[in-house]
Amino acid sequence: MAKKETITSLQQAKGERKLVMITAYDALFASLFKESVDMILVGDSLNMSFLGEPDTLSATLDQMIYHTRAVCNGAPESFVICDMPFGTMNTPDEALANCVEVFRRTRADAVKIEGGAERADLVRHLTRNAIPVMGHVGLKPQSVRAEGGYKVQGRDEKSIERVLQDAAAIEEAGAFALVIEGVTPTLAALVTRECDIPVIGIGAGKETDGQVLVWSDMLGFFEAFKPRFVKHYMNGAVAVKEAVGKYAEEVKNGLFPAEEHCYK
Ligand code: KIV
Question: What is the pLDDT of residues 169-184, one digit of tens each?
Fold first, then answer.
């Protein structure tokens, strides 16, 4: 089994090897993913793909703690990051109390916090209190209602400047790594060059220090829509529907259970 990543090993990877992150929301899938990835993110995207909500904003701290615990149980040797949900970090002290709650009730290694320069003081407060923070800049799904949609960043000078400032402020506040989402590859490459910490991209081209994808997207389970940046590595929805359809058919026509499935 590969050795568990640490903040030091993840930071040493910059410029040496690409980092691979995937989301997971439960013990079963975390245990299937753990051998292939460097980090597992318990993303608040679970609110959409597993709860069926239209966005991530209604995810709660208890929900994130429940799923993070499950992932840590399924992948005890993996570096696990808990996404801090919307509305749980209105002040630096509230953020600290909620991150401490995450660390008390799960074995997560770090938290992820969406936000740019406006969150720098809060991130500094956390890192000074021994909470490892992964930042998240560029397109921030928790700002979807404020922004009026999911808007790709970095298409004009103002947006490029803002994302660069956000990344610099979060790095300066002590974050050990950054996610950069939904930006042009040129901007992602610029941020990756400017930052000394690892920059993990999603919908950000290939010049970042690593990539992250939502597991139910990349395995083709999420059918509602396929963003441009997602690649399907299998057709999960079709495979599941076929298998469950076959099971139903065999129950109905008496082929299941067969002799070998019966106790003697
Ligand atoms: O919630 C999530 O899954 C995320 C990733 C998209 C980075 O934040």
Answer: 999 999 999 999 999 9
What is the distance in A from the centroid of ligand 1 to the CA of 161?
23
* Domain residue spans of the chain: 7-233, 235-264
Residues with catalytic function: 181
Distance 217 CA to ligand 1 centre (A): 11
Q: What is the pLDDT of residues 48-100, one digit of tens each?
A: 988 999 999 999 999 999 999 999 999 999 999 999 999 999 999 999 999 99
State the chain's maximal CA–CA distance in angstroms.
73
Is the CB of 216 inside a 6 Å radius of any atom of ligand 1? no
Indicate the pTM of the whole model. Answer: 0.97
Provide the CATH topology of domain 7-233: TIM Barrel (3.20.20)
For tokens 């509602």, name the residue: 224
Of the residues 21, 40, 41, which should be mutated to test ligand 1's pocket, given the most ligand atoms within 8 Å of the CB?
A: 41
Strands (E) across the chain are located at 19-23, 39-42, 79-83, 110-114, 133-138, 177-181, 199-202, 210-213
